[in-house]
Write a structure and sequence with these properties.
Elements lengths: L3 H31 L4 H14 L16 E4 L2 E3 L13 H8 L4 H15 L11 H10 L8 H10 L3 E3 L5 E3 L1 H10 L2 H4 L19
Antiparallel strand pairs: 1-2, 3-4
Amino acid sequence: MSDPSSSEKSGELVSAAIDSDTELQAIRAVLGALVPLKREGRTRVLDYVLKRLGMTGEPLPPASASPSRTESADSFVVPPTSESRGQASDIRSLTKEKAPRSANEMAALVAYYLTELAPGSYRKQSISADDIKTFFKQAQFRLPSSAKMTLVNAKNAGYLESAGTGQYRLNPVGYNLVVHGLPAEASGKQGVSKKPRKKKASRKSK
């Protein structure tokens, strides 16, 4: 006969896993709704929701109790997975790690992040001008005057390829740039300057 206590423990583990997955989905849904809003709008929405739920004045649980932690609505942090363990898990950290030197390189970095490292609900195979604006801001990278032209320029530089109207995807050149070419100092792209040789003055025969 099976041990009743062991079945109860397994049932508790299954229930905890379901609760954790449900909370993650809720967090992603809330972030997706709040990110496009300005700070004042986010505050009003959160205040209203908390009042409707009767949660105003309640202390927040410790960060360790939450399956996913957010520093702000503009910067979400994902727990390391088998795919991203050892790598930066948010666009701001990835930008600091890779140190792109131009908007073209940063556009390739955004495409790589959304393709390879972003959470499941955010991950996608192509990017648009809106993604350039959103993730340049999150990474605290200088905003270009035209997000659309940034994508076009990154395509002309060979990092992206067209994926439909206003959509661009990372190509192998852009992937190799982000993974193997950045930061430039680590990839050895900056060559050592050589001192010019001094020409020996020729002696004229008298």
